[in-house]
Design a protein that fits this description.
alpha/beta, Rossmann fold, nine-stranded mixed β-sheet, six-stranded parallel β-sheet, 11 helices, 34% helix, binds nicotinamide-adenine-dinucleotide
Length: 341
């Protein structure tokens, strides 16, 4: 039964992928879109096959009693203002990454949701990907033993051929290589290794290619993490590469290793000289239509039905990832000096 009515803020690339994903869940349906552009409700409804009301002012959409969840897909610099307003209007919130580009903004969003008793879900949808769900299951089965090293890296060239290039090249909206896109890899590393991070150290640089000249910040960074349990990890966030999209994972533990979709486990007594292969759908595209939003939104609506926080990507859990990112960016600004998390 469709009983979770969603209003989407923004009507760009991510919004259209969200729209289809929400409507494909058991409970969710998109009933409104709020955009600074004047949109035609009849046209939008016909295009997406469901009745959609159109708003140009967020306050008007928030006053709509027929909306349960507000889904924020607009520019990062507006995330705090929009998420805090939605929480104050007692709407549950889906928030695209980055949650926001500063620790103060993230903490305001978290505080507003908690003060108003609403649930939040950050679009770290990669946690719901088949690749990371299978990888996590392998870890939970103990096939790699105790992890002491892990790296998850993000390689995705965001150049003029990519829609968000027109705004994420600026420091204000893009923030850093980690904030604008590499956050998915760092978040996946924390999902696999645990999010108890003691300190980070990060350095950054940028490509000499003219495609990336407009960027006002370094578009390649590498971050080394020390976990509280003694393990170490690494995330490269590379948004200025010229190659296919690649989400690289290498985990090393006391019983074996995993490299992307290959692994070796001493527990299986297979030949250590060769990898065994896992059959799973890999995260191999930056196209939002390939991202596992539907599985994530289904989990959010199920959690709302149970009156529980979002599993894996709640505001509180995502804020822990952003705390590590802000510490990494601080370290990079200081030339790589370790920063406590
Ligand atoms: N989780 C992911 O993997 C993922 C992927 C893509 C984008 N995102 C995030 O989603 C958010 C939006 O990114 P996007 O790719 O949808 O960006 P986009 O450039 O398509 O849209 C960005 C904003 O600009 C507005 N906009 C678009 N075209 C417009 C026009 N012609 N006139 C006026 N306004 C216009 C949109 O409504 C939206 O608010 C960002 O926070 C981004 O980081 C996340």
């Amino acid at each position: 039964m469709k009983n979770v009515n969603v209003g989407i803020v923004g009507y760009g690339w991510a919004a259209t992928a969200h729209l289809a994903a929400i409507n494909a869940t058991r409970q969710g349906r998109v009933v409104a879109v709020c955009s600074s552009r004047p949109l035609d409700a009849a046209e939008l409804s016909a295009k997406h096959g469901c009745p959609i009301r159109v708003y140009q002012r967020l306050d008007d959409m928030l006053a709509d009693p027929g909306i349960d969840v507000v889904d924020i897909t607009g520019l990062p610099s507006l995330h705090r203002e929009q998420a805090v307003a939605a929480a104050k209007a007692k709407k549950h919130v889906i928030l695209e990454k980055p949650m926001a580009n500063s620790p103060e903004e993230v903490s305001d969003i978290l505080a507003a949701a908690e003060a108003n008793g609403v649930q939040g879900c950050v679009c770290f949808e990669c946690r719901f990907s088949n690749q990371f769900q299978v990888t996590k299951a392998l870890l939970d089965e103990g096939l790699l033993g105790r992890l002491h090293y892990g790296e998850v890296d993000y390689y995705h060239g965001i150049g003029p051929w990519y829609g968000q290039y027109r705004w994420n090249t600026g420091k204000k909206e893009g923030g850093s290589a980690l904030l604008t896109a590499g956050c998915h890899a760092l978040d996946a590393l924390l999902m696999l290794m645990g999010d108890e991070v003691e300190s980070v150290s990060s350095i950054s640089t940028k490509s000499a290619s003219e495609f990336f000249t407009p960027y006002e910040y370094d578009t390649s960074s590498v971050t080394i993490l020390r976990f509280k349990n003694g393990a170490v990890g690494k995330t490269a966030a590379i948004v200025d590469c010229l190659q296919p999209y690649y989400f690289h994972t290498h985990l090393v533990g006391s019983e074996g290793s995993l490299l992307d979709d290959r692994f070796h486990s001493m527990k299986l007594k297979a030949d250590k000289g060769h990898w065994s292969r896992l059959s799973m759908k890999m995260l191999d595209s930056g196209d939002v239509s390939d991202h596992p939003y539907q599985a994530q939104f289904q989990a959010f609506f199920d959690a709302l039905d149970r009156g529980e926080p979002m599993p894996l990507t709640s505001f509180r859990e995502a804020a822990r990832t952003f705390a590590v990112i802000f510490a990494a960016d601080k370290s990079a600004a200081q030339g790589g000096a370790p920063v406590a998390v």
